Every structure is written in structure tokens, then in C-alpha cells.
Amino acid sequence: MAPQLVLGLSEQKLTAKLSHPVYGKSETSISGLVVSIQKKIVGSSTQMWTFTVDGNISSQVCHVIQLIQV
Questions:
Q1: What are the φ and ψ backbone dihedral angles of 68, each rounded to 5 degrees?
Q2: N or C: which end of the chain has fewer CB within 10 A?
Q3: Is the pLDDT of residue 57 over 90?
Q4: Could you give phi then psi for residue 11, rounded to 5 degrees?
Q5: Predicted TM-score (pTM) of this structure
């Protein structure tokens, strides 16, 4: 049987500045963790996601981290 694959957070951090293809650089920065395709691990918090009615997807791990930081 083939392994089940899911989206999961890696431990690799990403920080970048956004750039518009026509207008060039902006002052907007983004940061977060890289999302990768991983072999499914039952109960892994890095593979659990929250979906909203307006189409946003967020990691439950990052959601918990944001709540703790506030």
C-alpha cells in the first residue's frame, strides 16, 4: 500500500520581502514556516490544519503559537 501524504509544517523558517512584478519592491515582509508534503503521522500537530469559510488555511501549530504570543 502506498503511503498517505499530507501537508505539514517543516522546521525550516522563511522570511521574505514581497515584490510586485510591475511596481517593484514593497515594504511588506512575510515570515513563517515552510509547508512540505510529508508522510502521514497520525496525531501529528504539524499536520493539522484549520480551514475558514472565506478560504484561509492555517496550521493549528502556528495558530496556537500566535495565541500564546498575544
A1: -70, -35
A2: N
A3: no
A4: -90, 0
A5: 0.60
Q: Which three cell numbers stand for residue 39?
A: 508522510
Amino acid at 49: W
Q: Among candidates 46, 34, 38, 48, which has minimal Cα distance to 3?
A: 38
Taking residues 25-32, report their average pLDDT: 79
Residue 55 amino acid letter: G
SS3 of the chain: the string is CCCCEEEEEEEEEEEEEEEECCCEEEEEEEEEEEEEEEECCCCCHHHCEEECCCCCEEEHHHHHHHHHHC
Whether the CB-CB separation of 16 and 29 falls below 8 Å is answered with: yes
42 φ/ψ angles, rounded to the nearest 5 degrees: -60, 130
